[in-house]
Amino acid sequence: MPITTARAESGIVTVTVDFPPVNALPSAAWFELADAILAAGADPETSVVILRAEGRGFNAGVDIKEMQNTTGFGALIDANKGCAAAFSAVYDCAVPVIVAVNGFCVGGGIGLVGNADVIVASDDAVFGLPEVDRGALGAATHLARLVPQHMMRTLYYTAQNVTAQQLVHFGSCYKAVPREELLETALEVARKIDAKDTRVIRAAKAAINGIDPVDVKTSYLLEQRYTYELNLAGVADEHRDAYVATGKTLKEGK
């Protein structure tokens, strides 16, 4: 199954994503992922959720080929709504969510990670938003939770990646470890949370969300507005078509 849920230990649940070859999720999968995360947190026996992935990388965002192989705006709308649902599920999950990031985390992956409670990563992990190269916008809201403001702007405008080591330096990534140690590192943190009174941890999650200086849902919705404008103007299709046809950005392909 592409998205699976398992109880790793007493109060620890893992949600694993596996969409070869690069974990670029079709629209329906974003909704499925949201449901899995919320269901895991709703279980009173759960004290912490670990979100992880199999394969080459953690997440490559939305499935652009699916979007370009459909007519009209239905796939775009579903992808945007699905991403919003999955990002919100990580944020709204009743218990802390630890993300274990292997390899690459780009596009929609940043939305998942930026809304997480704890981030651990493999030492070869990179994080980035190629949105401007795809004629789209989004997840600057979440990137801003990972890096300082001016770094976020630089990365966003240039579509460059930031490394796990840099995120450790910025204080957003708890640890960067060899890939073979990634799951165990996530479990080590999860066990420390699981050892606490789950009633208190659930209250702590709600309280911390309540004091957040930015409403991540409203902020992301504003970004999506501009994505829709770019699509209505035909700009986004130009960029996505170029990427699907050549694997390059529009300017690189000229």
Automatic annotation (TrEMBL):
Any single Pfam family the record assigns to this protein: ECH_1
CDD domains per UniProt: crotonase-like (cd06558)
GO terms, molecular function: enoyl-CoA hydratase activity
Any one biological process term the GO annotation gives: fatty acid beta-oxidation
EC category name: lyase
UniProt-listed PANTHER family: (7AS)-7A-METHYL-1,5-DIOXO-2,3,5,6,7,7A-HEXAHYDRO-1H-INDENE-CARBOXYL-COA HYDROLASE, ENOYL-COA HYDRATASE-RELATED
Name this protein carries in UniProt: Enoyl-CoA hydratase
